[in-house]
């Protein structure tokens, strides 16, 4: 959840200087993080006293289960010295090392020091050396519990990301062994990860870290958390009681739930705010009835784009979400030149049809098309169906540039013929467009490059034997039909098994 | 291979053909990058020189007039360009302001949220002590979404996008906002997150830090002068970026929004589905998306056409054919502002380059009176005046009025272009108001009119049919009263500066108004003047009754309306019909008189560009394959007598052709040294002896095709050869080569002088091949070979 920045950490550390007994801390944390009592108890047990030896700890669990927040807040609350580094922000070993060192020394980047870090540290060996140096110094400065040293905690967040770095697995296991490498008894290592201990490949580590699992929230806990965040708590709790169950089946992340429930709640409030419904049993039933129709579309919505002039969900939008399929919109929404449209169609046709069909489709005779219809025995039909299914699973196939351009040219010529038949006021002029399309010029190739750059067409790795690029259409059926409609192109005529 | 001085190499050999030397005196300096085509270049060059010679045989342009033409081009083009740029700026300004406003609003609302949460946490807090306030940050998830503006750019063609973002950056910078622009080059999977972050730091902090720690950015933003200012991060072409790096980058930024007021601005070339396809749900959940759409390219084209081609006077005109070609080109290939500007600039430059008298356009633009122009024209040298009489538009007609000087005619005709243009604009505007009611879009109407103009021959101007316009004009017949009235009112506005016409339109309008009001209310008492057809008597009778009832206040309003619905059509029909007829006749007359193509007037050659072919050649390029074929079969194109027809090599071939043919002997990698040797041997047979030994010793390098062999040892040898890039010979041959190497310094001292021109020619040929995209120059790793791209 809340990965507070390092700057905050320093400040919080200072503020929370007064010592509060463990009970206070427990009370405070469980009040802030409902449903996490078990984990908080475990964590506080493991943390123990300021000078206790601390085994490497692995805190793991799904995202948004309060791992980082609880950990950091408890450390800050207890006033323990710690350094926090997220392997997401610090995306290479050097950044991780330097960030930890900076926090240990209290170094702040500024223009005066040219935004440099305290030490230049690229290798693990350097890191170990500096760590020994700094932690030793720290001991001298802040020893205040008898003759024992205060434990310094290093928190590594998002450890699972380290696996993706080059040499990541080695780094993880060396970080686990850091206490041994530095021979510092007062080094507390805490790893936070969304992946469990088995997936982190800790086999070679000398000491298995102590696992602490943060399990997913239950419905009851989710209810507690979400009501805690809302001001109109009474109305909101009614709302949650009826709507949380279907949503939590899809996702148990608090962040996601809050996001997707918010627009629905606004909808739920509407009759109440208008004064049509009062909050009694009857009213609640009415509200539920009113909201029921919106639950399904709200669940289907993965994201929404807000309009700066209007609110996020205007009435129109909801209506269109409920009564029609989301893709049934008109127009492409952006400009594609005529040539690009034909190219897209050509690529689509080429990647849907086998190349053996080209001759029948674009050749002079149309005999092959009528022939296909003759086969109608059950087994042949079954075979066709199976083939079609297989094709569908495979997805669109790639086609070489040559074939693509040949089909494009055929389509453009066809268009030329059909154009001449039309004698509308407008189409007097579009004969010129077609004449421009008839020859494959460098412009056509430029358009192909443009289409590739906006991902409407994918360029697959070129065939090693021929050395020519191959292409594949990356558009869905609705889109391509929209394109075909916009230029009055009979797409179905050209598709096998349309 | 040094590019030595090419001072004394044979000029004639280059003169034989112009493969790629189109060093025209094109004053623009801007050349369409796609226009390199060998064949077309050659063909049209010869054609064109023929054309030019036929049309303007006398041109010995004095240098001063050339300068004048350049000046005139600059003036005219400057005016057009300014017009276009102003329009684009004006169109974009609105959306830029909206984005800027949005950034402000977001910042404000974020600040509000913080205050609100602080207050709530304090009131709900355990004890409200000082400690509590430190926890009173907005709860993690509600502040975690990055405010993201999706700017839908309207078209997939990327040439305008940079210009748009330049404008946006400028606008935001002025309004106190830090802006960093990232492109897809920053988001490569190879560089990972380092790429975008490094670029970000470079642009914002103006340093290249050692590491890409976001802490640096935070530290920079904490500084006094930056504090509080929002940071806008622009990703110009989202779709081309590596999706993985992009997603990681967004997640990273979203972790820092508590410390840095970051907003994202993403340029989207396609529709809103693209962002869903591009980013995984985990990254998408971190963005709070807002939609901004730029104006559609068609609308922009419409506005620009209106402003440049119809409404303004630029002393430069395009013939209908040219405009139609351009429209077709925009529609089918490249509808962007960049492309519009480029193609107009090409027309303009071609015109001023071709036409010796075109400098008069510049005069026309600045002079204020007809007399000045006449003076200027009469001061022209005889050569120009004679040239003017040879124009096809005047040749036959001027004979009639031999007594007056040509210059006077010319000045008068030129001066009239202003009024002609004005009338043209007016008539077209009248038609387009009519088209608005007919539901025809501007583009269709404009193209339709131009097509009609292009089809109708410019010289026979009387009694021609109005073509597609006939259908449009006939719409008057079944036009309702209200739309006729509003059409006429708009006409009155359009014709405000043309007194006669305005009076005519007003007359029709007043007639119509009086007739309709009269017929509606006081039908019985006043017979309308212009009702020629007799209205039906029973309607009149009802009308009388109604008006009496109104007088006595008996009848209710709804009943009146009902009656009105029944009768008014019948009554006002007649008034309407006559007014409709009048308006129709007026428009018909206007179209006949004033809607003429720009190239129908005498002396139009001075200000009107009509060469579609040259424009076509400039805008539409050939493919590389075509260039490749033409280079190999240059004889088919050139048809010269000096070169052998059977495809044999000879020194009379053009250097580029020769070099290209020689390069065909190699695989995809061409060893430069060998290539040069064979080139030199053909160009200058004297040198042949000195290089012969070497040529024999070094067979062409073929990469990717190792000799097939079952003997492991020899295969290893083969791959070793490839690595070294220089095949190893037998011992003897190697020795020989070495001795040759030793000899070379002595030889080169003597031959160097002789070699220089050939080297220069070779370098030039190789560079030309590189420019057309047939060769790739040596790379770092192996510097002695070039790669053939078209195989």
Q: Classify the fold: give the CATH topology of the largest domain in chain A.
A: Rossmann fold
Q: Please state how the strands of the largest beta sheet of chain A are arranged side by side.
A: 2-3-4-1-5
What share of residues of chain A is helical? 40-55%
The main sheet of chain A comes to:
5 strands, parallel
Terminal CA distance of chain B: 25 Å
Low-confidence stretches of chain B: 1-60, 125-142, 459-463, 523-560, 562-572, 689-745
Return the structural class of chain B.
mainly alpha
What's the shape of chain A?
extended
CATH superfamily of the largest domain in chain A: P-loop containing nucleotide triphosphate hydrolases
Low-pLDDT ranges of chain A: 140-147, 311-316, 319-329, 366-373, 419-434
Oligomeric composition of the shown chains? heterodimer
Strand percentage of chain B, roughly? 5-15%
Q: Give me the number of helical elements of chain B.
A: 31
What would you report as the Rg of chain A, rounded to the nearest angstrom?
Answer: 32 Å
Percent range of helical residues of chain B: 55-70%
Head-to-tail CA distance between termini of chain A: 49 Å
Give the number of domains of chain A: 3
Spatial strand arrangement across the major sheet of chain B: 2-3-4-1-5
GO molecular function, one term (chain B): DNA replication origin binding
Protein name (chain B): Origin recognition complex subunit 3 winged helix C-terminal domain-containing protein
Keywords (chain B): DNA replication, DNA-binding, Nucleus
Organism (chain B): Marchantia polymorpha subsp. ruderalis
């Amino acid at each position: 959840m809340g990965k507070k920045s390092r700057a905050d950490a320093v400040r919080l550390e200072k503020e929370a200087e007064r010592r509060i007994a463990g009970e206070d801390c427990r009370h405070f944390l469980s009040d802030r993080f409902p449903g996490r009592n078990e984990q908080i108890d475990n964590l506080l047990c493991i943390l123990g006293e300021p000078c206790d030896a601390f085994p490497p700890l692995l805190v793991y669990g799904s995202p948004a289960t309060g791992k980082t927040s609880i950990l950091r807040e408890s450390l800050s609350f207890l006033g323990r010295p710690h350094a926090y580094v997220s392997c997401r922000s610090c995306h290479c070993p050097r950044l991780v090392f330097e960030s930890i060192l900076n926090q240990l020394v209290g170094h702040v980047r500024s223009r005066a020091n040219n935004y440099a870090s305290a030490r230049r540290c690229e290798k693990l060996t350097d890191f170990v050396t500096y760590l020994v140096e700094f932690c030793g110094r720290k001991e001298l400065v802040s020893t205040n519990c008898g003759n024992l040293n205060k434990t310094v905690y290093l928190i590594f967040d998002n450890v699972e990301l380290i696996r993706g770095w080059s040499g990541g697995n080695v780094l993880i296991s060396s970080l686990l062994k850091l206490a041994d490498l530095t021979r510092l008894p007062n080094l507390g290592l805490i790893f936070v990860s969304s992946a469990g201990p088995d997936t982190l490949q800790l086999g070679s580590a000398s000491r298995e870290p102590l696992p602490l699992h943060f399990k997913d929230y239950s419905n009851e806990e989710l209810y507690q958390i979400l009501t805690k965040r809302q001001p109109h708590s009474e109305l909101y709790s009614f709302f949650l009681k009826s709507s949380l169950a279907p949503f939590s089946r899809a996702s148990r992340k608090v962040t996601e739930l809050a996001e997707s429930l918010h627009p629905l709640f606004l909808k739920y409030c509407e009759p109440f705010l208008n004064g049509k419904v009062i909050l009694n049993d009857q009213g609640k039933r009415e509200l539920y009835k009113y909201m029921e129709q919106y639950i399904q579309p709200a669940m289907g919505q993965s994201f929404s784009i807000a309009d700066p002039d209007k609110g996020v969900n205007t009435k129109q939008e909801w209506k269109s979400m409920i009564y029609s399929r989301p893709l049934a919109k008109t127009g492409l929404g952006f400009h594609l030149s005529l040539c690009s449209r034909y190219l897209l169609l050509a690529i689509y046709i080429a990647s849907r049809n086998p190349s053996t069909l080209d001759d029948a489709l674009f050749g002079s005779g149309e005999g092959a098309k009528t022939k296909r219809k003759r086969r109608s025995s059950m087994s042949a039909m079954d075979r066709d169906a199976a083939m079609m299914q297989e094709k569908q699973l495979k997805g669109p196939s790639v086609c070489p540039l040559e074939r693509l351009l040949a089909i494009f040219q055929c389509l453009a010529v066809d268009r030329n013929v059909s154009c001449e038949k039309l004698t509308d006021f407008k189409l007097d002029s579009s004969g010129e467009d077609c004449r421009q399309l008839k020859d494959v010029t460098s412009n056509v190739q430029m358009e192909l490059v443009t289409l590739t750059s906006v991902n409407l067409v994918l360029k697959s790795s070129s065939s090693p034997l021929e050395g020519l690029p191959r292409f594949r259409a990356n558009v869905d059926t609705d889109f391509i039909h929209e394109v075909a409609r916009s230029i009055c192109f009979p797409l179905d005529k050209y598709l096998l098994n349309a | 291979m040094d590019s030595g001085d090419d001072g004394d190499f044979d000029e004639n050999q280059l003169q034989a053909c112009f493969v790629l030397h189109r060093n025209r005196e094109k004053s623009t300096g801007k050349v369409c990058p796609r226009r390199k085509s060998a064949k077309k270049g050659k063909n049209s060059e010869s054609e064109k020189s023929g054309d030019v010679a036929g049309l303007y045989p006398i041109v010995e342009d004095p240098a001063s007039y050339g300068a004048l033409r350049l000046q005139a081009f600059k003036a005219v083009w400057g005016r057009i360009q300014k017009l276009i740029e102003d329009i684009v700026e004006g169109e974009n300004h609105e959306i830029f302001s909206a984005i800027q406003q949005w950034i402000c609003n977001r910042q404000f609302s974020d600040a509000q949220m913080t205050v609100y949460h602080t207050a709530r946490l304090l009131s709900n807090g355990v004890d409200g002590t000082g400690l509590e306030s430190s926890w009173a940050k907005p709860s993690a998830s509600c502040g975690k979404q990055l405010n993201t503006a999706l700017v839908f750019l309207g078209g997939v063609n990327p040439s305008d996008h940079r210009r748009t973002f330049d404008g946006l950056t400028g606008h935001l910078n002025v309004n106190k906002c830090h802006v960093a622009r990232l492109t897809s080059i920053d988001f490569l999977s190879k560089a990972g997150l380092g790429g975008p972050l490094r670029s970000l730091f470079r642009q914002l902090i103006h340093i290249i830090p050692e590491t890409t720690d976001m802490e640096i950015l935070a530290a920079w933003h904490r500084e006094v002068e930056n504090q509080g200012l929002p940071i806008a991060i622009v990703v110009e072409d989202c779709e081309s970026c590596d999706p993985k790096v992009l997603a990681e980058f967004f997640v990273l930024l979203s972790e820092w929004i508590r410390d840095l007021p970051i907003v994202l601005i993403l340029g989207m070339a396609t529709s809103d589905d693209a962002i869903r396809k591009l980013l995984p749900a985990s990254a998408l959940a971190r963005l709070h998306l807002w939609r901004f759409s730029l104006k559609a390219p068609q609308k922009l084209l419409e506005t620009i056409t209106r402003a440049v081609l119809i409404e303004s006077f630029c002393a430069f005109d395009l013939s209908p054919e040219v405009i139609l070609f351009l429209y077709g080109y925009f529609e089918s290939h490249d509808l962007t502002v960049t492309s519009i500007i480029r193609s107009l600039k090409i027309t303009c430059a071609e015109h001023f380059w071709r036409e010796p008298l075109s400098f008069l356009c510049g005069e026309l633009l600045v002079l204020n009176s007809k007399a000045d122009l006449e003076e200027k024209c009469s001061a022209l040298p005889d050569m120009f005046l004679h040239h003017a009489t040879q124009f096809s538009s005047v040749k036959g007609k001027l004979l009639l009025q031999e007594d007056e000087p040509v210059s006077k005619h010319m000045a008068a005709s030129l001066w009239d272009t202003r009024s002609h243009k004005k009338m043209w604009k007016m008539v077209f505007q009248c038609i387009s108001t009519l088209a608005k009611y007919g539901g025809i879009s501007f583009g269709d109407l404009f193209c339709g009119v131009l097509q009609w103009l292009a089809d109708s021959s410019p010289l026979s101007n009387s009694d021609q049919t109005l073509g597609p316009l006939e259908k449009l004009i006939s719409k008057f017949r079944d036009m309702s009263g209200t739309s006729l009235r509003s059409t006429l009112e708009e006409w009155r506005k359009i014709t405000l500066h043309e007194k006669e016409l305005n009076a005519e339109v007003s007359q029709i309008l007043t007639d119509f108004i009086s007739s309709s009001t009269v017929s509606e209310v006081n039908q019985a008492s006043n017979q309308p003047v212009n009702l020629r057809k007799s209205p039906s008597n029973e309607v009149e009778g009802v009308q009388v009754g109604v008006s009496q009832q109104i007088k006595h206040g008996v009848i209710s309003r709804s009943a009146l309306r009902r009656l009105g619905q029944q009768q008014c059509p019948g009554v006002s029909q007649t008034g309407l019909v006559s007014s409709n007829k009048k308006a129709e006749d007026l428009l018909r007359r206007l179209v006949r008189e004033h809607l003429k193509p720009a190239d129908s007037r005498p002396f139009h050659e001075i200000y009107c560009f009509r060469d579609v072919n040259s424009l076509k050649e400039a805008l539409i390029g050939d493919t590389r394959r075509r260039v490749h074929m033409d280079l190999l079969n240059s004889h088919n194109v050139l048809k010269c007598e000096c070169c052998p027809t059977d495809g044999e090599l000879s020194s009379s071939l053009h250097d580029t052709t020769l070099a290209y043919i020689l390069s065909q002997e190699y695989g995809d990698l061409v060893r430069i040294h060998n290539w040069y040797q064979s080139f030199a041997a053909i160009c200058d047979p004297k040198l042949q002896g000195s290089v012969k030994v070497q040529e024999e010793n070094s067979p062409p390098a073929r990469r990717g095709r190792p000799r097939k062999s079952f003997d492991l040892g020899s295969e290893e040898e083969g791959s070793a050869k490839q690595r070294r890039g220089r095949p190893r010979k037998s011992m003897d041959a190697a020795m020989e080569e070495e001795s040759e190497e030793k000899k070379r310094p002595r030889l080169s001292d003597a031959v160097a002088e002789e070699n220089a021109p050939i080297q220069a020619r070779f370098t030039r040929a190789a560079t030309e091949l590189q420019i057309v995209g047939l060769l790739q120059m040596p790379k770092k790793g192996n510097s002695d070979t070039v790669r053939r791209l078209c195989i």
